Amino acid sequence: PGGIGNEVYWYDAQTGGNLVAVGPTLETPVLTATTSYWAEEVYIEGGAGTTSQNYCIPTYPTGCSASDDIDDFIMAAAGINHIGSGCSTNGYGDFRNTSIIGAIQPGQTYNFEATHNFSSQWMKIWIDFDKNGSFEDVGELLFSSTSGSNNTNGSITIPVSAQNGATVMRIMDRYAGLPTSSCNPGGTWGETHDYTVIIGSLLCQSDRVEAVAEVNNTLPAPPAGDAAQQFCGNENTVADLDV
Fold it and tell me: How far apart are CA 37 and CA 26, in angstroms?
């Protein structure tokens, strides 16, 4: 069968464990002790890595110019690590044709975290599973906030029946209330991001290889020995210097 090629999955254990990142490199969180991660090469069946559907562009009267934004969006196990994106023009960030591409599998659950630069932000997440250019079909709304916050944390679960191939994930943020629909935020302030995601079944995988992130908490020894001092002009000692 056709596939989208080789990929690298990173885990926090030699067997089982949590999938913490996807991609050729792993950016760890801040570590206070030496930590091991395990990488395995996988081959995923998924088809093409682009999508040509035209989607509605949500509009906000004000948008994210007052910091009602999606500044960070991280779904590490899907390979999405979008940091410090700031406010998109008119409150809409189209990131479909960029290097930010998610890799997800049917039946799997993916944790995410979003950071906003203002309080009381509410979010919804959709994926266009049937690739018809709409997020309003049954089963395509995967997450809805239950309260507003500066940070939104949660998870989405991909249906077992999800079609392989590339499609679009929409993340919509609104200040002080849930977005009304995938095309209409229903509020004055907020931001929307679109990302390409590739849905694919795992065909085969290699054995895991350990990669160690070493943390050295030992301070270097202070310098020892004598050092020569040189002065310019008529100053002969430190006391003669004008400061």
Answer: 9
CB 137 within 8 A of CB 164: no
Residue owning tokens 């030496």: 34
Please, is 91 exposed, middle or buried when counting C-beta atoms within 10 Å of its C-beta (0-12, 13-18, 19+)? buried
pLDDT tier at 2, thresholds 50, 70, 90: very low
Q: Which residues contact 20 (CB under 8 A, 6 or more apart)?
A: 10, 11, 12, 26, 37, 76, 77
pLDDT digits (tens, 9 = 90+) for 34-50: 999 999 988 877 655 56
Q: Is the dihedral of CA 85, 90, 91, 97 positive or negative?
A: negative
End-to-end Cα distance, the chain: 77
Return the residue matching tokens 């000692």: 237
Q: Is the pLDDT of residue 123 over 70?
A: yes
pLDDT value at position 229? 62
Report helix, strand and coil shares of the chain as percent, to nearest 5: 5, 40, 55
Q: Would you give the DSSP letter of residue 99?
A: S
Q: Which residues pair with 149 in a beta bridge?
A: 121
Residue with tokens 């919804």: 124
Of residues 210 and 205, more confidently modeled: 210
Per the structure block, which two tokens stand in for 39? 């990488």
The pair phi, psi for residue 231, each rounded to 5°, is -125, 150
Taking the C-alpha atoms of residue 160 and residue 143, their distance in angstroms, rounded to an integer, is 17
Residues composing the chain: 243
- What is the residue type of 165? G
Token output for 57: 């562009």
User: H/E element holding 173?
Assistant: strand 165-175
